[in-house]
Amino acid sequence: MTGCWGATDVSSFTVDHVYCVNGDGTLKKFNNATENFEGSYRIDNEIITKIDVALGGEIWAITESDKLFKFNGVSWEQQPLACGKLCTLKDIAVGSGQVYLVASVYGSNDGPQSVYTLNNGELVKFGAFYNIDVDREGVIWVISNYTRTLFYKRPGMREFAEDAQMSQRVTSNIGG
Phi and psi for 57 in degrees, rounded to 5? Predict the structure, then answer.
């Protein structure tokens, strides 16, 4: 595969919705027919650092300047964040009807980074997690801030459960 040089992130929903962040901060889409990443989805005056593709191919992006954007199919729309310059966005996961942001919020007691949900521009604490991803079946996967172990929560579960297979390993990153 070619077309995504110096890739910094990748996300997919199906083979029709596979995107990578090129080294220059632009987004490229995978073309299954040519087996290459093609095109260029730019956000004016921004460098994309992290992405996630949601159900149906909706694209969400974090930029180097800690802004959040959603692609509406035609153009990028900046999403409001009430924390402004007080938050540093580290990663994003979209699924199960939520937008999850891994962020460091200045002045909080949440540690170097935690996971928040986005609610009308406000970051609402979701948990003391180092990272998060949501799979196609709606299973939420998280890494604990404290133990760096992997936990999951399937639809219908009330609490997170530790992944027994991963309990012997130290985990540092999932989903991107």
Answer: 95, 10
Nearest CA to 94 among 158, 2, 11?
11
Token pair, residue 24, equals 């220059």
- Residue 63: other Cβ atoms inside 10 A: 19
Question: Stretch 101-107: mean pLDDT, rounded?
Answer: 91
Residue 174 pLDDT: 63
Measure CA 114 to chain center.
13
Q: What's the Cα-to-Cα distance from 99 to each of 7, 59, 142, rounded to whole Å?
A: 23, 11, 14
User: Which helix H or strand E contains 99, and what residues bound it?
Assistant: strand 98-105
Amino acid 62 reads I
Which sign does the torsion angle of CA 42, 64, 28, 119 carry?
negative
Instruction: Please state the rounded mean pLDDT for residues 119-147.
Output: 92
Structure tokens at 43: 């956000």
- CA–CA distance from 70 to each of 29, 30, 50, 66 (Å)? 15, 19, 12, 14
Q: Is 176 helix (H, G, I), strand (E, B) or coil?
A: coil
Amino acid symbol at 74: V
- How do residues 45-55 score in pLDDT, each as one tens digit? 999 999 999 88
How many whole angstroms separate alpha carbon 120 and alpha carbon 41?
A: 25
